[in-house]
Amino acid sequence: MTTAATTNMPLQLNGLTLEYPDGQGTIKALDNVDLAVGAGEMLSLIGPSGSGKSSLLAVAATLIRPTSGLVIIDGTTASDLNDAQMTALRREKVGIIFQQPNLLASLSAVEQLMISDHLRGKPLKAAKVRALELLDIVGLADSAKKRPHQLSGGQRQRVNIARALMGEPKVLLVDEPTAALDHARSESIVRLLARVTKEFSVATVMVTHDTEFISFTDSVATMRDGVLGLPELVAA
User: Fold this and answer.
1) DSSP H or E stretch at residue 89
2) Residue 180: what pLDDT?
């Protein structure tokens, strides 16, 4: 783990500051954050509510422009891009896994994945082949035709993970993936994220309150008041 701009670091955040207006002054949601996550590496991000974790994910995902600093995705500096170019970068290089899967009720599991590739302008036939492959990887080969109401919470989150991988991202950003799951399903989801991080060689950042599962990740960093502590390796 390093904060310097290096090769094989799909995600680099350099000197990130994010300020919001607050009455007569401002609030610093992020305060000079430096972070780099390598290919095949999974970082757990922990900290109290309001510490800046969600702000960091939003800026890293290029959903919010920082007040200052750089977001570098697979060698491309997002701050150099206009809005359309930034959207394209996010679509092609970043997979986002939200706390709630937000699946479309009328679509089957395989269709949830196919529609995301269709929006990227890719042929539906090729999208279906890849979607079925990914559902197999996340353990849902037998549930490809099921709709969200026919799936358990853990299964819906697995569809969410597979959908985020459809665009072959370089960076995977995960927001509280176990918040609505019981212990057993939570552990299986974090184990799956750790596995696909290695298998697909993505740089993964997972915001979590479930500190008992950080042992499945490679490193952990703590945020407080917008300040990111130095990441620490997780003991094997």
Assistant:
1) helix 83-93
2) 85
H/E stretch holding 29 reads strand 25-37
Angle at alpha carbon of residue 86, lines to 130 and 189, rounded to 5° = 45
Rounded to whole angstroms, the Cα distance separating 215 from 72 reads 27
Q: Are 39 and 10 in contact (CB under 8 A)?
A: yes
Beta-ladder partners of 46: 222
**Residue 72: CA count within 13 A, CB half-sphere:** 21
Q: What is the mean pLDDT of the segment spanning 157-184? A: 94
Whole-number Å distance between alpha carbons of 186 and 128: 28
Q: Are 12 and 5 spatial neighbours (Cβ–Cβ below 8 Å)?
A: yes
Task: Please name the helix (run of DSSP H) or strand (run of DSSP E) that holds residue 130, with its range, or none.
Answer: helix 124-137
- Please give the pLDDT value at position 119: 73
pLDDT surpasses 60 at 135: yes
> Mean pLDDT in the chain?
92
Q: Tell me the whole-structure pTM to 2 decimals.
A: 0.92
Tell me how far apart the alpha carbons of residues 156 and 147 are, in angstroms, rounded to a whole number: 9
